[in-house]
Amino acid sequence: xxxxxxxxxxKLNEIAESYEALLFDVDGTLADNISAHKAAYVAxxxxxxxxxxxxxxxxxxxxxxVAVAKEIGVRYHKTFDVQEFSTRKSAIFIERFIHETQPIxxxxxxxxxxxxKKRIAAVSGGSRSTLNITLTxxxxxxxxxxxxxxxxxxxxxxxPEPFLLAAERLQIEPSKCLVYEDGVPGxxxxxxxxxxxxxxxxx
Length: 203
Description:
Blueprint: H1 3-16, E1 21-24, E2 31-32, H2 34-46, H3 55-59, H4 65-75, H5 82-97, E3 102-103, H6 105-114, E4 119-123, H7 128-137, E5 146-148, H8 161-170, E6 177-181, H9 184-192, E7 196-199
Parallel strand pairs: 1-4, 1-6, 4-5, 6-7
Antiparallel strand pairs: 2-3
Helix pairs in contact: 1-6, 2-5, 4-5
């Protein structure tokens, strides 16, 4: 790791000190793959005759893919099956872009450093099939005690439901959980769940 990454790694360890469970977002937090996800959304949208402005993906960071698909339909005045769009976007991401996934080194190393010290989970708006591949590429899938993803709760981020489900599965009080995120919706959900939150892109 670079000196800057080492400093951030140390900072994350300090922040985590007083918590019992650590809940990690995946895309943009553990995985440096947001540009790849944007490209997959743009490619999928093009199949529905939508010229997507990918800034919408920044705006909806952490949302389940079906919710992003619904928002695309609303903004571009298109009617399509959001589940079908979501499935297609995931397929495009896996086929064309998943190989571009790189770790955000100071976050992944922090997760690995905390194994055995803290309870570890991932909470993401992505599909389980895509997340399993991404987490395998990052070599952390087998380090997680639980993975909460799209469809596991009635509402995704910014709802607190995914975070509360992770805490329930870990049998840890929400107030003793720290959430790692790179976007506003995830932080909103974590705080609504009564958890601590850290923006990994702002430390």
